Amino acid sequence: MSRRISRRTVLRGVGTALALPLLDAMAPSVLLADGNTKRAPNRMAFLYVPNGVHMPDWTPQNDGLGYELTPTLEPLAAFKSKLNVLTGLAQDGGRAHRDGPGDHARALASFLTGTHPRKTHGADIRAGISVDQVAATKVGQQTRFPSLELGCEQRAQAGNCDSGYSCAYSTNVSWRSDTTPAIKEINPRLVYERLFSSSPAKSANRELRDRARKSILDFVMSDAHSLQNKLGVRDRRKMDEYLTSVREIERQIERAETEIPVPPEDFVVPAGIPKEYDQHIRLMCDLMVLAFSSDLTRVCTFVLSDEGSNRSYKFLDVPEGHHEISHHGGNAEKQAKISKINRFHTEQLAYLLGKLDAIQEGEKTLLDNSMIVYGSGISDGNRHNHDDLPVLLAGSGGGTMKTGSHIRLSRETPMNNLFLSMLDRVDSPTERLGDSTGRLTEVDA
Fold first, then answer.
1. Which of 111, 229, 255, 335 has the most CB atoms in a 10 Å sphere around its CB?
2. C-alpha to C-alpha distance for 362 and 37, rounded to whole angstroms
3. Which H or E run contains 402?
4. How many Å apart are CA 375 and CA 58, to the nearest integer?
5. Concatenated DSSP letters for 237-284?
6. pLDDT, position 19
7. Mean pLDDT over residues 365-383, rounded?
8. Residues 6+ away with beta carbon under 8 Å from 270
9. Is 92 helix (H, G, I), strand (E, B) or coil?
């Protein structure tokens, strides 16, 4: 029989505090008025991919539960029952509204805010608070970090990046206020240090640990062994799995640091970023899962590539830049290459969902207790349209959302209606966000 322990329990070592996953021993011993035990917290994450998608290979033909996965969505087959394909959502803030070109900058800046960014490449940027930061402001004090902002690509935060729009719009999806973006971190090493180091002020302890080539786990294992003696069989197994996953991430980061080629003497290489793009994405996904399972945060954004990215996908036999071929002009060969890129991205989403679904939280999984939005602020990269956006919603928000369907919504349904429904489920009810017109009741269980 497990002894009850606090949800705030951490494993401590020299200069280190390691949060724990949700254990059965942390559950309350009393029932709520409705006869249910206290539910695990809901989490929300938003994953962004740039330049739109090839919609014919994305959108299912049939609606409802009986829909068939399209070529781009096939990698998600194992999670079909736990996700929805949402067709018909729009972000009007991404449109020109007499501001001329700049759809890529507007797409990312409006994706989570539902606002039209001010056209400027000066210091007077203005967008709007994003849905993740609304939640972070309201419930962020319940976790060590109100939110976590991740990415795999980082441009400048100033200057002209898209037809007179500041680079801040093209690189940031999360906005703490109208004028302040939440800058994402692209270095897994720095994310890891932020999550699992007790205090930035204790750099001397971190340097000592690095010199000794010890991992964070080496410093907390004594505390871990003591705690495990108080746990039941299921919790001990869960602890073993968790500590193993922490160790594996440390090893991945170490491998990534050693794989970076020697640069020219005048070039400073950021340590800790994997050489291969898919490894970079998956390592960030691993960190997100660890942060959620440890309840270090319940809110996360992840920009897989900045909007307008012209990254080459040579490993997919697509040597051209992504943005370049997104302007396909109806060329079938270019469209096929875009679909290859789109499918690669959904394969990475499948990896994340698999990691989340493998972690049990009572009778549900971490995926069940999450809401994962995946999509782009542009529909077709050639048209630069901001309606009929490619959007997926995975997880059921603790069983409060129905899943497993292709839900075809009325055209021009504001995407922020979905965000209002999500905010309700993380105890952050909001009456209006951006151009919202109400809740998206179509996802209600």
1. 111
2. 10
3. none
4. 11
5. HHHHHHHHHHHHHHHHHHHHHHHSPPPPTT-PPPTT--SSHHHHHHHH
6. 65
7. 97
8. 186, 187
9. helix
**Domains (range + CATH), the chain:** 39-186+300-443 (3.40.720)
Structure confidence by residue, pLDDT tens digits, 324-367 = 999 999 999 999 999 999 999 999 999 999 999 999 998 899 99
Q: What is the pLDDT of residue 268?
A: 37
**Amino acid occupying residue 437:** T
Which DSSP category does 57 fall into?
Answer: G
State the Rg of the chain over Cα.
Answer: 22
Which residue from 340, 427, 443, 441 is spatially nearest to 395, judged by alpha carbons? Answer: 443
pLDDT of the residue at 18: 62
Phi/psi for 368 (5° steps) reads -60, -35
Give the three-state DSSP class for 403.
Answer: coil
**Residues contacting 227, CB < 8 A, separation 6+:** 5, 9, 11, 239
Closest CA to 14 of 218, 235, 157: 218
286 vs 109, 112, 146, 164, 298, CA distance in Å?
A: 26, 23, 19, 36, 15
Would the pLDDT of 389 be above 70? yes
Answer whether 14's CB lies under 8 Å from 197's CB: no
**Model pLDDT, residue 59:** 98
Q: Which of 48, 46, 76 is nearest to 376 (CA)?
A: 48
